[in-house]
């Protein structure tokens, strides 16, 4: 495997390219050329506004407009006012990014029919150039070369927490109950393993309480605080260790909980790329993120989050309604992202007497069977009504033991999957998809 293939073998749905230009025609061309590798975002603001925006977006690379024209029909054979204006903007941004984000790859965009743009790019320190008058294949070759060089310069490893998405196929099948038990039990196990080195309330596990009905996870864990998911996205630029461990709601056991806002209409202001950028930032501060998406109805958001996750657990029960919903969920996922081998099946409230066996369900939907969780509605409801989780009142219950097995698998997965650097993580499967 050559250096490019080795560096770029795991591209995910989170991959982003930013094109800083007012030229929408070129943006469409670049979007088509790079579309199978990620999303191209066009940014048109001035440098002062663009700089923090680019840092927030955390793209794979930034493309700068050295073409000197804003519209396709403005072909020029002499230096024009358009050229001076757009080139000055590109030069200023290139110099600012070199100081603010020195490891971020930059690529100039222009046309060799107007070589003054390429010369200006070289003088600004941008040596890689995409010629929009050439083919899309040549543009991809440039991007591959640039990202391979960046990956070779990247540090060896950066610790990033696991993101596990629990995708309940419909509301009411116990996804939130599973999520809160999983999060609290992982937190307890981590605190026990750390012993005196860690306070019992040091949070290394976060629950993204995004299931419906809203706020169930926060309720079950008795988490205090009102900093919700939409507010977290709005404050993404302020995210640091202090904010994470002081502002975000925390359960008595130490699980950080980020729930949907009280008014779900606020989620309309949350863009998908900002939401995914938040998750990526959170993975720097937590060992495990559990995302509860039981009953969540935004299919595009679900597909993007599933694409970003390390593991995707589809949670169902044996009822006809749930199995029909499972089929629809898989159809939605497959329509947006092909199966990448991260999906697993969890059959909740399982009882052999209910009909179709778990193995039959897994075979029918072509999903690896991760676990069956026994029917425990009475005991789970009874413990919840006492303000407790089941492992707090019945630590040896079959349901608790089944979740212990899931945690064992998670910890084992965490040991064998390397936590790449930011660049290494975002550089997945480009070369293999050429």
TrEMBL record:
The biological processes this protein is annotated with in GO are: negative regulation of cell division; phosphorelay signal transduction system
Q: What is this protein called?
A: AAA domain protein
List the keywords (alphabetical).
Phosphoprotein
The organism's taxonomic lineage, starting at the top:
Bacteria, Pseudomonadati, Pseudomonadota, Betaproteobacteria, Burkholderiales
Q: Name one GO molecular function term.
A: ATP hydrolysis activity
Q: Which InterPro entries match?
A: P-loop_NTPase (IPR027417), ParA/MinD_ATPase (IPR050625), Sig_transdc_resp-reg_receiver (IPR001789)
Q: Name one GO cellular component term.
A: cytoplasmic side of plasma membrane
TM region(s), chain numbering: none
- Output the Gene3D superfamilies linked to this UniProt entry: 3.40.50.2300, P-loop containing nucleotide triphosphate hydrolases
PROSITE patterns given for it? RESPONSE_REGULATORY
Annotated positions of the 4-aspartylphosphate modification: 82
User: What is the source species?
Assistant: Collimonas arenae
> Which superkingdom is the protein from?
Bacteria
Domain (Response regulatory) ranges: 16-147
